[in-house]
Amino acid sequence: YPSEFLMQKITEDNEIPVHLHVSASLQYVAGLKGNALVEFFHGNIAEVENEELRHLMWSSVLFYKTPNVEVMACVLLSTKAIYFLLDDSFIRADEHQSNFWNKENSGCENSSFHLSCCFVLKLNDLHSVNVGLFDQYFRITGHSADHIVTCLTRDSYNTHTFIQQLMAVLSLLARTPSPEPVDKDFYSEFGSKNTGKMENYELIHSSRVKFIYPNEEEIGDLAFLVAEKMDGLTNLQSLNILLYVLAFQVNDVEGSAQNTSSLQPKTLILTSSDLFLFDEDYISYPLPEFAKEPPKRDKYQLVDGRRIRDLDRVLMGYQTYPQALTFVFDDVQNQDLMQNLTLDHFGE
């Protein structure tokens, strides 16, 4: 340890997505390659001497306690824990974090000294992993509200790779075997199965960590929600969700020295007739076991919806992935334009 293949893989993965801006401390981490990266991990992050770094990923993350603050993080998976190396701007982003992080003010004037906040989730404290629709994100749940984190990878490949690596690392954990199942009587067995609701697909790992995947009902619920927002749609059967993707809506910020763009996280849903943008709650659903009340907002909140037939043109940027698309719609208030022209010009 570390093998040449692991060194190469971690070096390749250590790249900040070009569209996201991070602080100097994380820029420093992204500049490390090969052996320097492994040494940095053991010297600054690892909690015990004999743990091995197995996987590295850059991702936006959300915490259960601060669901409105999405922050960039370098996610490091070792044989003992998952480490989230956070952008230091996160600490200043919300006053509610002061109790959560217990961070003391550091009077470091030296610009070469980089300070980052690191959130640690030990693998032994891991209860379940919820994979989002179409592997666009996943939520890691520990034993309390402080230990719930969602990684918004916005990339099915990154999600799949991390889950595979996590399962491999969990297989190394020595946990006490589960107790023998207790024989249930007929009535309790029969009653428990008739909940009237289809459970999500669950895969219980040998380490007793649950990996929970969405079922078809979740797509059905989403289709129903979308249908409610569409005027004049009577046949729900004909509604097909063609695309579900976590994206950013670009808002140009004017008045600054150079026009910068702020990225607003949005869920884009494309059907055969409409294009929708939703604000989605990626961290509160499904409800954790210890939640005493439902979340303050719905899982999906409609931000904008346009008919495909009103789409005039799509402008594509020339930059590499991630691609920027601009949708230009005919902004006609009254859709029956020809009828109105007839009335205006030829009617009384």
TrEMBL record:
Subcellular location: Cytoplasm
Stretches that traverse the bilayer: none
Domain Nischarin C-terminal PH: 241-347
Alphabetized UniProt keyword annotations: Cytoplasm
InterPro entries named in the record: PH_domain-containing_M2, PH_NISCH_C, PH_PLEKHM2
Pfam families recorded: PH_NISCH_C, PH_PLEKHM2
GO BP, one annotated term: Golgi organization
Any single Gene Ontology cellular-component annotation: endosome membrane
Limits of the PLEKHM2 PH domain: 114-178
GO MF annotation: an example: kinesin binding
Name of the featured protein: NISCH protein
Organism this protein belongs to: Pedionomus torquatus (Plains-wanderer)
